[in-house]
Design the sequence.
C-alpha cells in the first residue's frame, strides 16, 4: 500500500512518494491499477512468482487507515503481511528504512493506519523526504528540487528492489539487505 493524497494537485509531491512507488512497481511488474473501489484503486498480479495486491488509497493521507483496513478485510490479510510505503521527514532524500513495526513518527497516515488496524505491528518502508527548517506542511505538499532528483531516483530504484525482496523473502531479509 502506497500512502499519498489523491488527485492531480498532489501528484509528484513529497507526501505522495508511496503512490510513486506503487506506480513504479505496477510498471515494473506489469500490474494494472484498474480496480477502483470506494477506498482504494488496486491491481493484482505477481512479484517474485507470488500473488500480490498493489494499492493506492483514494482517501487523503490522514485517512489512510480506512483504505488499509478495507484491503485487510477484503483480502483476509493480517497486518504483518502488508507493506506500507510512506514518506519520512526524518530521513534525508535518498535514504530509506524498512521496519517490521513501530510508531508513526508523527506521520498522520501511519497514525490513521495504527488506529484503524488497532496495531502498529505491520511492516513499513519509509522513504526520506528530508525535514525542512520550517514549514513542514508546505514541504510535504511540495515537489522535490532538481538537486534532490538524483538521490530520489536512486532511493526509488532501491525501494523497488526492497519490495521485491520483501515479497520473495520477508521482512527480515529485506531489512538485512536494504537498511
Sequence:
Amino acid at each position: 500500500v502506497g500512502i499519498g493524497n489523491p488527485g492531480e494537485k498532489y501528484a509528484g509531491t513529497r507526501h505522495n512518494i508511496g503512490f510513486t512507488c506503487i506506480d513504479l512497481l505496477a510498471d515494473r511488474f506489469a500490474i494494472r491499477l484498474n480496480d477502483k473501489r470506494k477506498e482504494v484503486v488496486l491491481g493484482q498480479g505477481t512479484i517474485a512468482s507470488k500473488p500480490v495486491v498493489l494499492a493506492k488509497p483514494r482517501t487523503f493521507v490522514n485517512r489512510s487507515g480506512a483504505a488499509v483496513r478495507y484491503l485487510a478485510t477484503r483480502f483476509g490479510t493480517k497486518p504483518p503481511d502488508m507493506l506500507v510505503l510512506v514518506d519520512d521527514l526524518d530521513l534525508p532524500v535518498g535514504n530509506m528504512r524498512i521496519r517490521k513495526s513501530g510508531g508513526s513518527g508523527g506521520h498522520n497516515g501511519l497514525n490513521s493506519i495504527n488506529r484503524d488496524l488497532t496495531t502498529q505491528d505491520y511492516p513499513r518502508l519509509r522513504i526520506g523526504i528530508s525535514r525542512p527548517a520550517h514549514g513542514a506542511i508546505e514541504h510535504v505538499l511540495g515537489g522535490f528540487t532538481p538537486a534532490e532528483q538524483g538521490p530520489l531516483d536512486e532511493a526509488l530504484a532501491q525501494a523497488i528492489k526492497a519490495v521485491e525482496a520483501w515479497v520473495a523473502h520477508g521482512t527480515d531479509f529485506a531489512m538485512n539487505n536494504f537498511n
